[in-house]
Write a sequence for this structure.
């Protein structure tokens, strides 16, 4: 019986992240539009876009290999699994034993690796530019992310997200400098990983400045739909991850009843909304940086992560 | 006035106004090219005619223009571009349109004729040919680790067509080569034999964003040729339209430059100001861009009381909102980080090419056609020339900001002094007279030059020179050493016209 419930909850979680991801993207777009004194598209527009792309014919470059056709599915699968590993409204999910932060990073890393390959596969100059820029960003974002994981693992004594969230909820955690540093670093990494301003601009039409968009420029139809959905999922993943680690309030414990689950769900939705609005505010108030400033930006995230880890070696209570 | 003419020896043509035209010998033609190369004269235009080539030069000190003509019985003339590089593209275009060779030119590739035309040399000895696309030999670049990025002519955004060939080393641009001509409409062919009304309409459609400046320059040229005096009210209304056009375009540009640095907030706010400006223009003159509002002899639409009220409302709002936006621009460090020090145009280059408008004025070239040679009513209005010398994207934004402030000031002065009276004078055309005229008007982008010859009430030949001719090459220079990702920002800060350049 318990197994069935666990299965149901895990299934619900997987469906939930999939269904909510486009909504979060829609929310960010809507809020940004309102800041720019535009009415903005409806919150449901990303769903309509996905439906439209799904119906559309796929146009493939003549020299596209089989890899190019498989990669959207690979990227989507990896991102979806990663997103369903993060505790959103309940800890102790069925996949919890594998819901390891390092596993999530590895999943996202492989999704990015495949996407960069796809950018190179068709042999257009824009794909190449996009892949080279993306890999440059990744080579700095991933070490920073690993440092953050070290910090959190040292504090919580585990790399499992359920355990971590449980520890953060307990009174043992207290105020720690290293946690603050890790939080800032994680937000910086999240901005870079999700191709948001100031690192990349998800709404740009300027082919020469694109990073993520340049890599996927050759995709169309259902392939593009999957890539877009993966991008939305990734954004949701990072917001959920930040919420789960640094604002775990309201998370339902593994043995929770219906009432706690509902509370967990409501608080999760509220956290997503707050995250989306904050992102929109941040993106509106800043210009995109030069491509060669990105290493400095991510270098700062890496240093913060390193500092946080070092502080913990100096004293476990910092 | 005497200085420039004294230096050019030749037979003066009667009936060319307001500046002199001289038929010169080949030796004098070469001498002028040397003067251009030495920087004592500035090239204003170089264009063909049946059996001869014309070159307009400006003496910047005196603010004085002369047109030199060289008869060429054979379809060839000594190249100016060989001595003075800014002329190279003009000579290539001249060859495509007229089939006249510039002897000694370092670059004889086609420029406007991309092989889509079914006619060769449409303005000269034209002959029908099958459209044939031949590969265009781009300039060779050699070196280790270089690769090319072709961009355009179709772009991801909704902009005009143009091809850019980047040679890059990683992210750094080693060379940019432009390939233009995709927006060629054959305006000069259409002009030949057209009536003055049609000519004015064609001139106004050379580059849509500068329609007022083009119509203004065309009207100036016609009026100079026909010695028509424009009524004072029309003179002021023309300046009013020109300043409205400048305002609308500068608002749009300032926002669009910031948007290319992904700072959409500025784009949205400036978009509102631009929209307010074009709506005020529509309320005053019945057309948002004021197309066909300036006609030879005067203006087509008068300004009524309601129009004045809408202008006053626009000025009040713009004076309230714009300083806040300037502050936002100046205080957003992330934006300044993008615009400052990117895409620098050295002031020597700006001088050599005689770059007009914000491109020249941001690189320390103190030239504004409204000041020198100057034309009515600006000689009676009080305004300052915006001048910066950093030559980067930031300086080009600041020139626009200062010009917006000056334009708002000018609008107030014009409304205050607007005289009553008729808005158009009849043109004294006569059937058998051959007269020539030219006009130079400061559009938002720079100085628009128009030269024409009238035979009776028909246009025998009309040449329109967009300021972009001398700005596009500077963009190639400005981007060198910058990174590829900064190109859209630099390009937007130039905002050169494709349509006006391709004709």
């Amino acid at each position: 019986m318990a197994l069935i419930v666990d299965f149901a909850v895990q299934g619900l979680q997987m469906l939930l992240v999939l269904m909510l991801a486009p909504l979060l993207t829609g929310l960010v777009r809507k809020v940004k539009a309102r800041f720019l004194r535009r009415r903005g598209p409806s919150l449901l527009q990303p769903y309509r876009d996905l439906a439209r792309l799904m119906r559309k014919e796929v146009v493939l470059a003549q020299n596209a290999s089989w890899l190019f056709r498989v990669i959207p599915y690979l990227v989507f699968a990896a991102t979806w699994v990663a997103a369903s590993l993060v505790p959103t409204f309940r800890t102790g999910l069925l996949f919890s034993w594998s819901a390891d932060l390092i596993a999530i990073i590895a999943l996202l890393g492989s999704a990015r690796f495949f996407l960069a390959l796809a950018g190179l596969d068709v042999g257009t100059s824009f794909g190449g530019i996009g892949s080279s820029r993306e890999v440059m960003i990744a080579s700095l974002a991933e070490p920073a992310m690993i440092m953050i994981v070290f910090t959190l693992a040292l504090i919580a004594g585990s790399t499992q997200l359920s355990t971590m969230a449980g520890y953060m909820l307990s009174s043992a955690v207290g105020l720690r400098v290293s946690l603050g540093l890790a939080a800032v670093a994680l937000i910086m990494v999240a901005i870079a990983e999700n191709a948001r301003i100031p690192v990349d601009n998800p709404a740009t039409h300027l082919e020469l400045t694109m990073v993520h968009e340049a890599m996927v420029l050759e995709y169309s139809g259902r392939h593009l739909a999957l890539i877009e959905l993966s991008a939305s999922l990734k954004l949701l993943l990072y917001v959920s991850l930040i919420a789960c680690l640094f604002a775990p309030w309201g998370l339902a414990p593994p043995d929770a009843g219906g009432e706690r689950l509902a509370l967990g769900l409501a608080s999760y939705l509220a956290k997503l909304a707050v995250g989306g609005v904050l992102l929109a505010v941040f993106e509106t108030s800043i210009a995109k940086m030069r491509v060669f400033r990105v290493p400095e930006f991510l270098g700062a995230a890496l240093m913060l992560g390193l500092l946080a880890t070092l502080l913990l070696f100096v004293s476990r209570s910092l | 006035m005497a200085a420039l003419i004294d230096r050019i020896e030749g037979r003066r043509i009667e009936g060319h106004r307001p500046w002199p035209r001289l038929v010169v010998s080949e030796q004098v033609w070469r001498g002028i090219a040397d003067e251009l190369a030495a920087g004592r004269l500035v090239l204003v235009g170089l264009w063909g005619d049946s059996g001869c080539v014309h070159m307009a030069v400006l003496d910047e000190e005196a603010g004085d223009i002369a047109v030199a003509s060289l008869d060429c019985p054979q379809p060839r003339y000594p190249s100016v571009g060989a001595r003075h590089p800014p002329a190279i593209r003009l000579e290539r275009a001249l060859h495509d349109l007229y089939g006249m060779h510039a002897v000694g030119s370092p670059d004889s590739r086609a420029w406007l004729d991309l092989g889509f035309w079914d006619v060769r040399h449409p303005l000269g000895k034209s002959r029908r040919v099958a459209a044939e696309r031949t590969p265009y030999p781009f300039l060779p670049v050699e070196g280790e680790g270089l690769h090319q990025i072709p961009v355009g002519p179709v772009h991801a955004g909704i902009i005009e067509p143009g091809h850019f060939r980047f040679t890059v080393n990683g992210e750094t641009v080693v060379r940019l080569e432009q390939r233009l001509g995709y927006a060629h409409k054959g305006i000069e062919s259409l002009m030949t034999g057209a009536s003055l009304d049609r000519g004015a309409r064609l001139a106004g459609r050379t580059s849509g964003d500068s329609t007022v400046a083009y119509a203004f320059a065309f009207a100036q040229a016609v009026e100079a040729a026909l010695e028509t005096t424009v009524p004072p009210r029309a003179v002021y209304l023309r300046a009013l339209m020109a300043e409205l056009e400048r305002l609308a375009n500068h608002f749009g540009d300032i926002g669009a430059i910031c948007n290319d640095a992904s700072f959409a907030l500025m784009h949205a706010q400036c978009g509102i100001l631009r929209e307010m400006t074009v709506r005020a223009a529509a309320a005053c003159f019945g057309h948002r861009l004021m197309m066909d509002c300036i006609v030879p002899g005067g203006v087509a639409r008068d300004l009524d009381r309601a129009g004045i009220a809408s202008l006053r409302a626009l000025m009040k709002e713009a004076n309230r909102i714009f300083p806040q936006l300037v502050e936002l621009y100046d205080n957003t460090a992330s934006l300044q980080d993008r615009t400052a020090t990117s895409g620098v145009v050295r002031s020597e280059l700006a001088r050599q090419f005689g770059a007009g408008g914000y491109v020249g004025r941001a690189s320390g070239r103190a030239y504004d056609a409204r000041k020198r040679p100057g034309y009515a009513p600006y000689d009676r209005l009080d305004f300052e020339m915006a001048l910066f010398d950093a030559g980067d994207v930031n300086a080009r934004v600041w020139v626009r900001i200062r010009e917006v402030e000056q334009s708002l000031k000018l609008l107030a002065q014009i409304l205050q002094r607007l005289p009553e009276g008729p808005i158009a004078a009849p043109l004294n055309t006569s059937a058998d007279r051959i007269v020539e005229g030219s006009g130079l008007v400061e559009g938002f982008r720079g100085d628009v030059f128009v030269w024409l010859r009238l035979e009776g009430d028909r246009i025998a030949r009309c040449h329109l020179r967009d300021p972009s001719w001398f700005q596009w090459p500077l963009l190639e220079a400005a981007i060198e050493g910058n990174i590829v990702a900064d190109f859209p920002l630099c390009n937007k800060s130039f905002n050169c016209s494709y349509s006006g350049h391709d004709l």
